[in-house]
Amino acid sequence: MDTFAAVERALRTAAPHTLLDVVTAALGEHYGAQRVELRLADHSMRSLQIVGTVPFTTDPVPVHGSPQGRAFGAQEAVVSDDPAARAVEVHLPVTVRGDRMGVLSVTMPEDGFTQAVLPELLHICEALGHEIVVADRDTDLYVLARRAARFTLAAEMQWQLLPGRSCARPEFSLGAQLEPAYAIFGDNYDWSASADHLTLAITNGMGEGMEAALLTNLAVNALRNARRAGLDLAGQATLADQAVYAQYQGRAHVSVLLLRFDLETGAVEAVDAGSPRLWRLRDRTVEPIPFDEQLPLGMFEDTVYVPQHFTVRPGDRLLFGSDGVYDAVSPAGEHYGDRALARALTATTLLPPTQVPGAVLRELAGYHGQSPLDDDALVVCLDWYGRTEAAASE
């Protein structure tokens, strides 16, 4: 642990763009590392992009079918032997509070590696992940490394809104994914967890390109402003509705599914104001959770929103999807939400919630056929564990 403390101190005092250099030097000094490589997951979650000075110049490593990808997906160390070089390559997940960021690969001499060093290396990766989050405020190095292609301006604006791609607490774990990742229209998601509640919003601004990005930015920030002001769920929807109407006078609107989970009891309050929908997997049975549909945000002045209620139980899996998911049509003309979505959700039972959105979107791409999706496809998966005495004390 003395080694870990020394590395952690070095990371905290390093310039934001030198974090990998600091880790490389420390791993070389304390563990005899011969080579260190940091890769971050791209926004489509299909590849791991190397952190380097010039973006898009080094071949990515696929998330599926590579040792690095196995470490990223399983969230555990993967060790690969290279007898010819008398070396061992260790691939370690870099994750912060459940948000999977990437993989650190360390090549060590064969005679210098033991399983006992893995916990120390994982601690160093955790510290590195935290420092990358902080460093993102001051450098574009890690932001660029997450990109497999250039963003449109609209996509840049939308991604800056997102809280992350996954989040884990003792009471729940969730993951989310947007597709197409590099040319987003109006779909977005947001979450915030406090000591006793989780608030989750799935939004879909009408239109495309910059118009959709500006509209969604307004709505999401209005919802955040209302939440941070202490308004209840209906009040959050009302304030955001007023903000959108004041700007667009009914010419544009935002669909939103807004939920607030009580971490102690599993009681859920929901406001359904538009197109995002919810399905529940319980005891291997998938069923949609219906709500009374209310008007999207900004459609009319002074809309009154009424929350509805339901309860989640430990073991429940919730799947949230935008209309780009459930309204996608197969070559035979059947909507994905009619039957195929339930099959896909059942088939992913053994996957953690962080991997479910990607699995559903890959299945959706095959279902849709050769032509690209003509709308954003957004999937959020939430596994509910409930609060135990241990969870309540954290």
TrEMBL record:
For the keyword Hydrolase, the answer is yes
> What InterPro entries does the database record attribute to this sequence?
Bact_Sigma-Reg (IPR052016), PPM-type-like_dom_sf (IPR036457), PPM-type_phosphatase-like_dom (IPR001932)
Pfam families listed in its UniProt record: SpoIIE
Which UniProt keywords are listed? Hydrolase
Q: What is its EC number?
A: 3.1.3.16
Family matches, as Gene3D superfamilies: PPM-type phosphatase domain
* GO molecular function list: protein serine/threonine phosphatase activity
> Where is the PPM-type phosphatase domain positioned along the sequence?
169-384
> Does the keyword Hydrolase belong to this entry?
yes
Report what the protein is called.
PP2C family protein-serine/threonine phosphatase
Please name the source species.
Streptomyces xantholiticus
